[in-house]
Amino acid sequence: MSDSQDYDLIVIGAGSGGVRLARMSAGRGARVAVVESRYLGGTCVNVGCVPKKLFVYGAHVHDELEDAAGYGWTLPLDQVSFDWPTLVANKNTEIERLNGIYGRMLENAGVTVIDGTASIKDPNTVVVGDKQYTTAHITVATGSWPVVPDVPGKECILTSNEMFYLPQLPKQAVIWGGGYIAVEFAGILAGLGVETTLLYRGDLFLRGFDNDVRQFTEQEMRKKGIHLEFGVTIEAVEAEDSHYTVKLSNGNVMETGLVMAATGRRALVDGLGLTELGIELNASGHVVVDDYFQTSVPSITALGDVIGTPQLTPVALAQGMVLSRRLFGDGEGEVDYTAIPTAVFCQPNIGTVGLTEQEARVAGHTVKIYRSEFRPMKYILSGREERCLMKLVVDGATDKVLGAHMVGPDAGEITQGLAVAIKAGATKAQFDSTMGIHPTSAEEFVTMREPVA
């Protein structure tokens, strides 16, 4: 650390990874500044994980009200009303609270927050507005941004960013895409009473997930009244007086009140000046780094969504911890990207960790599959037809559990615990010897005895 420069580290971007890196580095005695042009907390806190989960909770209330009758509660559903502006306003209040928490965390850690848009002048100088700041290290943690395909009428198409601030809900909506964000927003809108259609170019959404999970989720989403159309894409959108006309690749035309694209995200590197400095970007536009987040310029590192690793908040947090240690600690540490648990908060939820059945077979494992499908106890009295899927992928030679997959209520909560076991290398025999918690859905993971494949 040198007193000849303004800072030891300047982090560009105050998302999850950038804030963690800044705080941990300041705690190790480094002089740290964070530059942020939008909002503290990044995508996750403001237009991602947190508000999305709040909307998912809100959307699921209708199911709970319907289910109440089976438990003796008389609720005249025709008298129940929903007010979208109230949900948005309450969500905004919570996000503002979290923004404040992030600000106080940085302040208490001794990190300087610089408001504005940054560019990198040279390997040791960051420019914000009309001011220049010198530093020993620069970390790019600017995240990613939604991409809308270049089709006629693209200016009419919303992204997830705008969905969190809609002034009112439409009667009909079209969601374009097949990943996490698309299926989650389809569930949110449908749960709030919007007639929802999801369009995806492939033959089945959620590419990369276990095939049983994908097929089961399709089945359950259709039960929710969500219209799913595969093998189709949008060719053009035209704005009418109070609606949109959507022209599809199969020749069909749809009328709708809203079109949202969830068709991918790009690394947010605009205006940073990376290529001018000789920093390499790959074919997808992500910053190229080595295993220790080092770019081709020795003083500049990068982490989070901008480098193309799994776009998950816990991944960025882990990267921030490791990079801080490497820059200002003992110089050791690396991020382990194996067996990363994840959840998709569609309805019902998906939780998954480890290898899919397809990945395990491709990797050469002799695979045993344990699979269970049932109606959760919660829905027995209510009469709801929603079902739950649980699946274990096991190495037949070693008995090691390679992957666990679930579609059903609280799948994310259940999968987090399973992730610890799989990360620790648990065997199927150890699963079998674990006492279940009865009666729960989760106990099914330790009571599946006979392989189905």
Automatic annotation (TrEMBL):
Its EC number is 1.8.1.7. NAD(+) binds at G177, G178, G179, Y180, I181, A182, V183, E184, G264, D305. Residues 7-320 form the FAD/NAD(P)-binding domain. GO terms for biological process: cell redox homeostasis; cellular response to oxidative stress; glutathione metabolic process. It is an enzyme of class 1 (oxidoreductase). GO terms for molecular function: flavin adenine dinucleotide binding; glutathione-disulfide reductase (NADPH) activity. FAD binds at K53, T142, G143, S144. It comes from the Bacteria. NCBIfam families: PRK06116.1 (NF004776). This is Glutathione-disulfide reductase. It comes from Marinobacter antarcticus. The gene is gorA.
